[in-house]
Amino acid sequence: MSFAQVHTRSVVGLHAPKVMVEVHLSQGLPALTIVGLPEAAVRESKDRVRSALINSNFQFPNRRLTINLAPADLPKEGARLDLPIAMGILAASGQIEPQWLEDYEFIGELALNGDLRSIAGGLAVARAIKADSNERQKQNSNSSKTVHKTRKLMVPAGNGIESSRVKGIKVYAATNLIEVCEHLQVENRISNEGKAISLTETPLGLLKAVVSKLPVVNASYKVDLADVKGQHHARRALEIAAAGGHSLLFTGPPGSGKTLMAARLPTILPNLNDEEALEVASTYSVANTEYQYGSRPFREIHHTISAVALVGGGSRPKPGEITLANKGVLFLDEMPEFDRKVLEVLRQPLESKQITISRANQQATFPANFQLVAAMNPCPCGYHGDPSNRCHCRPEQIQRYQDKISGPLLDRIDLQVTVPALPISDLQNNQPGECSKAVRARVTKAYQSQQVRQGKPNCELNPSELDEHIVLGENEKQLLAMAQIKLNLSARGYHRLLRVARTIADLANSADIKTPHLSEALSYRGG
To answer: How many whole angstroms separate alpha carbon 17 and alpha carbon 128?
Structure first.
């Protein structure tokens, strides 16, 4: 046999498209050629694979080797193709049987001694295999065709636990190339003998499928809302933001507790479901960043961040901070200190909940369903409006400082809350505030009522859905008409006001929006 095919995956954005590694041995001077748009790390794999095979006591073919990575128009990057290339060479040279590879997909980086090193995106690959399996089952459900079995996934030991979180696929984790080959050989022998593999006794050389022993969702946080004393108005706004997924801006003097409260928003958000937790973990797997599985992300970014780092990018698009904050919180402290051009790139993702990065060679779409929480001082010194009269900023300085945030961006922030300085009596009070668990219970109840009514949180309701799910009485309509004239509300601001009022009504377990709900929602429009 001088030809072999191995199934694997590339990673483009957060997706893992199929890649077929084709290996052909032919006559001619010894050489190894890789085609199919390989990046530098992929082209260098020939040296890693050669050494890994030799050091694992395999023969490296002394012939002309051509390796094609299909589809040829899909760019391939990273060292995850080392293992499938090595398996293809072994099969094409007759050192292992090609049919052993048919039921597997392989990913992994090879060390020079044949050890397997973990790679980024292992969870994304596992989710893609599961999605393909589900799609095939749907296509064959109404036909007489045989449903293809879901391929098994062979990964490095370091990717075993994360990949095994995807239910419905078998994941095998190996520490080196020899283990992979021994597993395939023993499995094929047992299959040919027609024996069933015992769950208690594993034959020598056969790898056990990795089973995740951790709970599916394990949300735990090191902070608690009970740490916040006083600030009842701001705490109430935080609860409303959590219940409806609304964006939030805290304005107040230094030390009033703005950052303290923002950091505790994830602790009162509803728990992630299984699919949401996998989506978040997959994002961090692709970004090769640590993440505590099941918890809501909280990304606090510095004001020196660039637009590319915020939204993602690069010659091969990578996720940015807004994608890492997906299903969680993006916190901007000292918002006016950010570059205005950086802030303006948030406008589109806040509306569409996703970001598309386009480059000359590639386009990638990343999720960006985050909650924006920002904090700012009222003036450059931070004490404008403080009873102590410590502020000496001139009116033009205050205006110039506040104008660093554009009107269109402010219009997209649902809740705008003034946080006053905390009295000493509140700080000296030993009684803790209401804990996150109690607040999260109310938030979760309101969130579930939104899912039953409309299948999405209130922050995502479009204008037609607002007309469908919100019916106002005459008193409420008159109040809104007066508010629109007094506050000069735009159409976007009007719709956002209705969404906030709907969330307040949900927290009050009210089927309709009443005047008190609208009045409270109006109090968060810059007041």
So the answer is: 8
Find, among 79, 80, 130, the residue nearest to 106 by Cα: 80
The alpha helices in 15-167, defined as continuous H runs, are 40-43, 45-55, 82-92, 122-140, 160-163
Chain centroid to Cα 392, Å, comes to 44
Distances in Å between the Cα of 257 and the Cα atoms of 252, 371, 389, 425, 518 are 9, 19, 20, 15, 27
pLDDT tens digits for range 318-353: 899 999 999 999 999 999 999 999 999 999 999 999
Q: Cα(360)–Cα(342) distance, rounded to whole angstroms?
A: 22
At position 54, the amino acid (one-letter code) is I
Q: Where are the beta strands (DSSP E) in 138-182?
A: 152-156, 171-174
- The three-state secondary structure class of 461 is coil
State the helix-helix crossing angle for 177-193 and 82-92, rounded to 10 degrees: 50
Is the whole-model pTM more than 0.85?
yes
Q: How is residue 455 annotated by DSSP?
A: S
SS3 64: strand
Nearest by Cα to 500 from 251, 271, 239: 239
Return the number of other C-beta atoms located less than 10 Å from residue 340's C-beta.
12
- Extract the tokens encoding 61: 């073919």
User: What does 192-207 look like in DSSP terms, one character per residue?
Assistant: HHTPPPPSS-PPTTPP
Question: Would you say residue 137 has pLDDT above 90?
Answer: no
